[in-house]
């Protein structure tokens, strides 16, 4: 690492850059969250709550106060009005901040910035719905409140992993929580398998969202090309890049099959998103997929 990074001037400049980016990230995430219709994620079973769930026929032993007399007056039977049990759920989010996530092949946000924005927007939706949210890499459990959003935003803007590819190292997630992992998932999958297996053992269900730049899907390279990892640790030069396209696309498809299979085994869902697509559409899909469990 360059020793100049440790000078007071450079430290101050980096801190100021992070401080200026933080309000932008929060603002963008909150605007994005505002585009999604808010609502509580109920458990779809009877219990204490305010939201109407269903009517059922009155049974012996039901107290008179539980009978809905207006509904019962429409027929010859008595009906009980049940509300939906609404318990505060916990949402755990992992954002891959390794070097590969910095990639952007054009005038588009990096994969990392899109992941950060979606993560914070999801947390905003959860907390506004009375739930708790947190980051998987932090020791603190998911919490609610505006202060938690600020803490998450600060953590997301810290220096990331300097390795080429990231692997989830989540703290123990609450029993029955939901989780979202945002990454390109291009690195070795072994740690991901461990993380999802451990989560499934604790009744945690979630989503893997693979975020890719369009160039990583199309492989639009031809002729002499130098490929270099974002960290600079790996470099490969070829005179005929087009000859690599078929093998690359095959391996990308194989990786998706692996991720899909892992999700099937652990009860998670696999989704994809490209950085030239609408962030709002991605957020809506995630929010819908994280809806009530059946």
Automatic annotation (TrEMBL):
It holds the Pfam family DUF58. Residues 54-256 form the DUF58 domain. This is DUF58 domain-containing protein. It comes from Jannaschia aquimarina.
């Amino acid at each position: 690492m360059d020793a100049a990074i440790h000078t007071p001037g450079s430290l101050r400049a980096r801190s100021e850059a992070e401080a200026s980016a933080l309000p932008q990230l929060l603002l963008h995430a909150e605007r994005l969250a505002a585009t999604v219709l808010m609502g509580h994620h109920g458990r779809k079973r009877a219990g204490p709550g305010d939201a109407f769930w269903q009517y059922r026929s009155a049974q012996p032993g039901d107290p008179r106060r539980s009978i809905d007399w207006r509904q019962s007056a429409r027929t010859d039977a008595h009906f009980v009005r049940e509300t939906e049990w609404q318990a505060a759920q916990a949402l755990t989010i992992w954002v891959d901040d390794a070097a590969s996530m910095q990639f952007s092949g054009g005038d588009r946000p990096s994969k990392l910035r899109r992941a950060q924005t979606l993560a914070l927007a999801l947390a905003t939706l959860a907390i506004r719905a009375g739930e708790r949210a947190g980051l998987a890499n932090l020791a603190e459990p998911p919490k609610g409140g505006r202060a938690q959003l600020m803490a998450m935003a600060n953590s997301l803007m810290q220096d990331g992993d300097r390795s080429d590819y990231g692997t989830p190292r989540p703290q123990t997630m609450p029993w029955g929580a939901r989780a979202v992992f945002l990454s390109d998932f291009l690195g070795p999958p072994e740690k991901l398998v461990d993380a999802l297996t451990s989560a499934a053992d604790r009744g945690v269900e979630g989503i893997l969202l693979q975020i890719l730049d369009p160039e990583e899907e199309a492989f639009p390279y031809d002729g002499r090309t130098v490929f270099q990892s974002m960290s600079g640790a790996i470099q490969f030069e070829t005179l005929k890049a087009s000859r690599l396209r078929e093998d690359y696309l095959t391996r990308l498809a194989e990786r998706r099959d692996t991720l899909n299979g892992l999700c099937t085994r652990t009860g998670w869902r696999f989704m994809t998103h490209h950085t030239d697509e609408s962030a709002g559409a991605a957020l809506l899909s995630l929010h819908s997929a994280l809806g009530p469990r059946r």
